[in-house]
Design brief:
Blueprint (H helix, E strand, L loop, with lengths): L23 H6 L15 H57 L3 H25 L1 H9 L4 H39 L1 H32 L4 H35 L5 E9 L9 E11 L2 E9 L1 H4 L30 H14 L1 H4 L7 E6 H11 L2 E3 L4 E3 L4 H11 L1 H5 L5 H15 L3 H16 L3 E5 L2 H9 L15 E10 L9 E11 L5 E11 L13 E9 L4 E6 L21 H7 L3 E3 L4 E6 L2 E10 L3 E11 L12 E7 L6 E8 L4 E3 L6 E6 L5 E10 L3
Parallel strand pairs: 1-4, 8-17, 9-18
Antiparallel strand pairs: 1-2, 2-3, 4-7, 5-6, 8-11, 9-10, 10-16, 11-15, 12-16, 13-14, 14-15, 17-21, 18-20, 19-21
Helix pairs in contact: 2-3, 3-5, 4-5, 5-6, 6-7, 7-16, 11-15
């Protein structure tokens, strides 16, 4: 009988010899065993560990790819949300910054406040979706994710600091004037809050720029974002640093423990002078620790009467005054130079030199500014003069009192009416409501644009700031390689009464560009005198005007018509006296050449060429003076396709005029903007600075 092996001992593999070190049970389940290549494994617990390791690897692989998918989805979703929110935030910031630049701090605050909520919602969304944790975790592996977080955090801080800035500016706008009068500490704290905000904005902007620079290689959109932010940073960084430097100097000046002085110059354009109007009156505003100490309103003849030094006046004034003084010192159309000159004369006067008073700033204010303040605050009753002063009668009534009133007759103080009017007006400004304050800011901004308000500061940082924002009344600096035209028309009333109040002015310019790129310019100025039948005599005399035009350097006069000849000559010999000459005036007058053929002068000043002549207009008369002059090509080659011609006009402070300009393209060209050979520009009431441009194209197109 054949022996049988028990079933339970049968295994599904036939071997000649079982190696006791081999685990056959696992191998049987997974295929045929090649005994020659069978690995030695420990039996029992070791086999379960190997199985677990392999399974864990497979599971980890699935888990990893699952996490990547989840992370990608989360980040993709977060990216879309961030993009949409970012677009809204960027739009709000842009519009809010524009509002800040327009001095609309309330609108700016609204936009930045919206962004604060946008950032909060974005943060909540990121936290809820896990995007924040994911980016933090990935940031330890891939640093670029840290930069994403840096951008978001810095952007939120930037917006917050912009909000603080807008809020502080809003406070300054609403309360700055009253703070200066009665709460210097609050004024300084508000200015310091503005300064801190500007510093923080500068830091935040730089952090964002550096972070986006690292992100730019991550994607095309990141590269575009970096470019936009870099361009924005470059365009505004200088502005931010300038503002920071200005605030540092301005706060230092205001917060001084020692008494400081600001000069307010009240210019009367009824008797026009190069910088804006005759300086009949002024105010010395003293302050310390951010608060006004006093305001001394004076007749300009007071300090001039205590001026021992003798100074040669401009040649055009030598027939009406022997000595130059503060009253005539705003002789230069560039206000910075005029302000320096006025301050110099005042500081030489014994009124101030004996007390060692120095003026740190000068602010010129034309009559139009005072009139708008009275319109805002309402008519002012002056019972001692039996007058109620309004916007409509301010000039005539005050001028009448100054020229022929009782104060002049009885005590020799013709400007007393201004001393009484000024404090009443200031008190009323303190009580303006919010809507009136908004209107005040808008009015002052409009006056500054017209050069009715001009500012000068001895401190270079403050002066640089006011120059950048066109508040200094300076003449435009013509760039090198300039293809275009510059024009400024400057009037000077010399013994012509107060007639400029009744003279209107219209300027017309026609420029011909030849094929070499040179310019032939025809400039006509028409002045109409509507006085002659007024109650007071100073409105009814001839308007005697020394007129100057400033244009491109190197221009030469070709012809002049319509001008007048002044026959009165000065008989005083300054060369044989102990008079001194002011350097800046001497520099200009040393360049003057009299053109006998035209009864005119040509000179150089402010890096420009000037032409000057006398121009008289009688009451009820309209006259035109016409200059023709040639200007060589300023770019070194003839006009080319795509060449851009530019025209710049500097209006004189205190003078209102229309402006009409026609520019004729060279033969073979026309203007892209009009598709014709003629480019025109016209305004009925020119602003302080006007400009336009045109692009040349071939007319064969």
């Amino acid at each position: 009988m054949q022996d049988r092996v028990p079933i339970k001992n049968v295994e599904g593999v036939v071997v000649d010899v079982k190696n006791p070190q081999v685990n056959y049970s696992w191998s049987v389940k997974h295929g045929i065993i090649n005994l020659r290549h069978t690995r030695l494994n420990s039996i029992g617990r070791g086999s379960r560990i190997k199985f677990f390791v392999r399974g864990a690897v497979i599971f980890a692989s699935f888990l990893f790819f699952g996490l990547v998918a989840h992370t990608s989805y989360t980040l993709y979703k977060a990216k879309d949300e961030a993009r949409e929110t970012g677009e809204r935030i960027a739009s709000n910031i842009k519009s809010s910054v524009n509002s800040l630049q327009s001095l609309d701090s309330a609108d700016a605050k609204s936009g930045f406040r919206k962004n604060i909520n946008e950032f909060k919602n974005l943060e909540m969304s990121f936290n809820g979706s896990g995007a924040t944790k994911i980016m933090s975790a990935l940031g330890s592996i891939i640093p670029v994710f840290n930069d994403v977080g840096t951008v978001l955090k810095s952007a939120a801080l930037l917006n917050t600091n912009f909000f603080i800035l807008a809020d502080s500016l809003d406070t300054l706008k609403r309360n700055g004037f009253s703070y200066f009068q009665s709460d210097g500490d609050a004024l300084i704290k508000t200015l310091q809050a503005i300064q801190d905000s500007v510093k923080n904005i500068t830091t935040d902007a730089e952090t964002i720029k550096n972070a986006t620079n690292k992100l730019k290689s991550f994607s095309d959109s990141a590269e575009l974002m970096d470019k936009n932010i870099a361009d924005m940073y470059l365009s505004h960084s200088a502005e931010l640093y300038r503002a920071e430097s200005f605030l540092n100097s301005f706060i230092t000046l205001l917060n001084s423990e020692n008494e400081k002085h600001i000069l307010l110059l009240f210019q009367n354009p009824s008797e026009i002078r190069p910088a804006g109007g005759f300086l009949g009156s002024y105010a010395d505003v003293s302050f310390a620790k951010g608060q006004m100490i006093g305001m001394d309103v004076r007749d300009i003849y007071d300090p001039d009467g205590q001026l021992d030094i003798k100074v040669v006046p401009p040649k055009e004034l030598q027939t009406v005054t022997e000595k130059w003084g503060a009253r005539d010192a705003n002789w230069f159309p560039d206000f910075k130079l005029s302000a320096e000159n006025v301050i110099w004369f005042l500081e030489q006067s014994k009124i101030y030199s004996e007390k060692d008073v120095k003026f740190d700033m000068a602010i010129a204010i034309n009559i139009e500014v005072v009139e708008s303040l009275i319109e805002l605050t309402g008519p002012i009753a002056l019972p001692e003069y039996n007058l109620t002063i309004s916007k409509e009668n301010f000039l005539k009534e005050v001028q009448r009192e100054v020229e022929a009133g009782n104060d002049k007759k009885t005590n020799g103080q013709p400007k007393t009416i201004l001393k009484k009017l000024a404090p009443i007006l200031i008190e009323r400004l303190k009580t303006l409501n919010d809507s009136q304050k908004e209107m005040l800011i808008a009015n002052l901004d409009a006056h500054a644009e017209q050069k009715d308000i001009m500012v000068y500061a001895k401190d270079p940082s403050i002066q640089s700031f006011v120059h950048t924002y066109n508040l200094d009344g300076s003449l435009y600096d013509i760039p090198s390689n300039f293809f275009g035209s510059y024009l400024s028309v400057i009037n000077t009333n010399v013994a012509g009464g107060k007639t400029d109040a009744f003279v209107s002015q219209a300027i017309e310019a026609t420029i011909h560009i030849d094929t070499s790129g040179s310019l032939l310019s025809d400039v006509s100025i028409t002045r109409k005198h509507s006085g002659g039948d007024q109650r007071d005599p100073w409105w009814n005399v001839d308007n005697k005007n020394y007129i100057q035009i400033y244009t491109n350097p190197g221009s030469s006069l070709v012809s002049l018509t319509g001008n007048s000849v002044k026959k009165i000559k000065s008989s005083f010999d300054y060369s044989a006296s102990d008079f001194i000459k002011r350097d800046e005036l001497k520099k200009i007058e040393d360049t003057k050449v009299f053109l006998t053929e035209w009864n005119a002068w040509v000179f150089s000043a402010f890096q420009k060429t000037g032409f000057g002549s006398w121009f008289f207009v009688s009451p009820k008369e309209s006259r035109t003076i016409s200059f023709r002059y040639h200007t060589d090509n300023g770019i070194g080659s003839g006009p080319k396709e795509g060449a851009i011609y530019e025209f710049y006009y500097d209006k004189q402070s205190g003078v209102s005029n229309s402006l009409a300009v026609s520019v004729n393209a060279p033969i073979g060209f026309m203007w892209k903007e009009t598709n014709t050979p003629v480019l025109t520009y016209q305004v009925d009431d020119a602003k302080g600075f006007e400009k336009f441009s045109g692009t040349l194209i071939r007319s064969s197109r």
